[in-house]
Amino acid sequence: MNLHVFIIALLIPFTTQQRTRATTTTSTELPTGGIEAKCSGNWCTTPRPCTGFGCPPTTTEKAYPIPPTPLINRALVAFNVGNDISGIYGYLELAQDTQYAPVRINGTLHGLLPSKRLGFHIHQSGDIREGCSSTGNHFNFGPLVNHGIPGNMVRHVGDLGNIQTNSYGIATISMSDSMISLNGERSVVGRTFVIHEKEDDAGRGVDQESRVSGNSGMRMACGIVGILGTVQAPY
In a 3-state reduction of DSSP, which class is residue 199? Predict the structure, then answer.
């Protein structure tokens, strides 16, 4: 047999076998969010074709959609942390019916100064390692603005005005606010509610501190907003 013909005869089965092996793929299902393909006995678990595993760029892969992130519809604030004044305790429950609905705030706080109006704000951070003083400024999203109260055209997102205590130092809170949210950029989850020692002047004072904090004074008690319930989007 001619030597050239003999070499070609040997190469044809080899190249045919390699081509068949490289183009044979089978898909297998994974849990939600996963992609997997079997290529010549090797497993590929990336969103790209199985390059480097003997598979061509046209490798068939089966993708599964990642489920939407659950939306928070209920949250809880426990007040049991203070700087210098102790004995303040209670709970607030926050509820939001839909992603863009106002947030309802309901609860009762005990041990406050009797018969007073006290500043009531949400602060930027959930850091209470140094008590309420390490929670940062009033929570705000967007451009820098002056302090205000609900109903003002200009206010921080976390400016919630005042709460009223009775002669026993108890405050029953029932309010709603459309600037705060439990989801998205205005979410208060992980931030801190703070009760102050003085009445919030709504940013109408003549000094600079009025435009920053409403001259609400010392931070008496605080509580971090924690998740209480979630639902699947949309809701």
Answer: coil
Q: Can 110 be counted among the known catalytic residues?
A: no
For the chain, the structural domain boundaries read 70-232
CATH superfamily of 70-232: Superoxide dismutase, copper/zinc binding domain (2.60.40.200)
Neighbours of 1 (CB within 10 A): 6
**Would you call 147 a catalytic residue per the annotation?**
yes
DSSP structural state of residue 202: T
Other Cβ atoms less than 10 A from the Cβ of 217: the count is 15
Q: Which of 155, 156, 191, 211 is catalytic?
A: 156
| Spatial separation of the C-alpha atoms in residues 215 and 27, rounded to whole Å | 65
Q: What is the C-alpha to C-alpha distance for residues 124 and 211, in angstroms, rounded to an integer?
A: 17
Q: Among 155, 177, 191, 196, which one carries the catalytic annotation?
A: 196
What tens digit of pLDDT does each residue of 64-96 get?
667 778 899 999 999 986 555 568 999 999 999
Q: Would residue 4 show up in a list of annotated catalytic residues for this protein?
A: no
